[in-house]
Every structure is written in structure tokens, then in C-alpha cells.
């Protein structure tokens, strides 16, 4: 008989905010419920102009594929009956939304520089964000979309349930400078893909109804 205590706890997906210099986690955001589905798009960075038909570039790649993910996350205060929620799910929503905003301190510092006549103000750098989906998918990302549908409210109009459509762009070595911590994390993510691809069972030509001679591979 399987006891409740013997059932392994499910691994949660989430986001880890990392100090890009020291590499220390600054904040960990655990998604309350794992999304039911993931939409992943990979677009190759092919060399040569699109549609130009340069025959010397047809098989060349300029860099890693451009990869983006989209998924829906759910937040529900009523599922956490043992946790007081006087502000509803405002804190959880604000935590995610602040990944898209500079802080007030950063904005005031930029205003101060502008007031002193600084000609060029470097854009504010956001923290390094990692998206995690188990231990085989840990990758640096930039949030590209946060669309919130608030569905229920308490008597003070605090939202208590919401559905969030999140979009992320995977940051690769094409996006980050060499030696950047995010660049190294992306290479580790790509190496994991290589390892998994190497463990996949190899197919056979006869399963496709072909022989080596059919496709000009001689003795293969």
C-alpha cells in the first residue's frame, strides 16, 4: 500500500533572479502550479540573406537558434488556506511585474545624472533571470511578455486569482558578452541538449523504406 508520505513531491517550475557578478541567487520565484503546456519556438540563425539563394551559405549557422517560450501560469490565493493573504495576490503579481521595471532608486539615479547634464546615460541593467523547468532545463531568459487576467477579488478588491501569459526569450551567447555569467549558463544549457541528443536511440534507413544507395551514400 502506497502511503501519502511516500509520494514524491512534484518539482515546481520557476524563476531565479541571480546577481550577474557574484552569481548568488537574489530571489527565487516558485510558480504555484506548473503550467499545463509549454509553447517553444526555435528559429535558426542561418547565414546569408533570406531568400537570396547563396549556395555557399546554405548550411552555415551564424549562432545558436533564437529560442522563445510561452506558457500560462496560475496564481490562486484560495489554494493557500493556511497562509494569510490580506493583500490577495498583489505581492506575487508585483514580484513578476518588477522583473520588467527598473527600481525607483535606479530611476531617481538616472534623473539625477540627467539633471547634472550627463550627455549619455547607460541604460539600466536588469538582474540576470533564469527560467527553470526541472534540472534539465535551466536557462538565462529575458521576459518579453506578461499578460495578466485577474479573475476574482476579495471585498477590498484585492485580486485573489489570476492567469498570467508569460513569454520569455532565451538569452544565448549571441545576446550576452563573452565571459558573462548568463553566457556561461546558456552554454551549460546547450551542453545539456547535446547530452540528451546523444542518448537518443539512432534510427535506421530501412525504417524509412530506404537504403544507402537510394540517397547516394554508397555502403551506408
Protein architecture, described:
This protein is α+β, with helices and mostly antiparallel strands and 220 residues long. It has one domain. It is 17% helix and 31% strand. It has a 7-stranded antiparallel beta sheet with strand order 2-1-5-6-7-4-3.
Distance between the termini: 53 Å
What number of structural domains do the residues give? 1
Q: Please, what is the average pLDDT?
A: 85
| Strands side by side in the biggest sheet | 2-1-5-6-7-4-3
How many helices?
Answer: 3
What is the fold's blueprint, element by element?
Blueprint: E1 14-18, E2 25-30, E3 38-46, E4 61-76, H1 90-97, H2 104-115, E5 128-132, E6 138-153, E7 159-170, H3 181-198
Antiparallel strand pairs: 1-2, 1-5, 3-4, 4-7, 5-6, 6-7
Quick overview:
The protein has one domain.
Which characteristics define this entry?
single chain; 3 helices; 7 strands; 17% helix; globular
Amino acid at each position: 500500500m502506497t502511503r501519502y508520505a511516500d509520494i514524491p513531491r512534484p518539482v515546481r517550475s520557476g524563476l531565479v533572479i541571480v546577481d550577474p557578478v557574484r552569481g548568488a541567487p537574489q530571489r527565487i520565484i516558485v510558480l504555484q502550479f506548473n503550467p499545463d503546456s509549454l509553447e517553444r519556438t526555435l528559429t535558426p540563425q542561418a547565414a546569408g540573406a533570406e531568400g537570396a539563394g547563396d549556395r555557399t551559405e546554405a548550411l552555415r549557422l551564424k549562432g545558436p537558434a533564437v529560442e522563445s517560450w510561452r506558457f500560462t501560469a496560475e496564481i490562486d490565493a484560495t489554494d493557500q488556506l493556511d497562509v494569510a493573504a490580506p493583500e490577495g495576490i498583489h505581492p506575487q503579481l508585483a514580484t513578476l511585474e518588477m522583473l520588467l521595471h527598473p527600481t525607483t532608486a535606479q530611476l531617481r539615479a538616472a534623473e539625477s545624472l540627467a539633471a547634472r547634464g550627463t550627455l549619455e546615460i547607460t541604460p539600466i541593467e536588469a538582474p540576470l533571470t533564469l527560467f527553470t523547468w526541472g534540472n534539465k532545463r535551466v536557462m538565462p531568459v529575458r521576459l518579453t511578455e506578461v499578460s495578466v487576467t485577474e479573475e476574482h477579488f476579495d471585498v477590498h478588491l484585492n485580486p485573489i486569482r489570476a492567469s498570467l501569459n508569460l513569454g520569455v526569450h532565451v538569452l544565448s551567447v549571441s545576446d550576452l558578452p563573452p565571459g558573462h555569467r548568463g553566457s556561461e549558463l546558456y552554454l551549460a544549457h546547450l551542453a545539456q541538449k547535446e547530452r540528451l541528443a546523444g542518448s537518443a536511440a539512432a534510427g535506421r534507413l530501412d525504417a524509412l523504406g530506404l537504403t544507402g544507395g537510394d540517397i547516394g551514400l554508397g555502403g551506408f
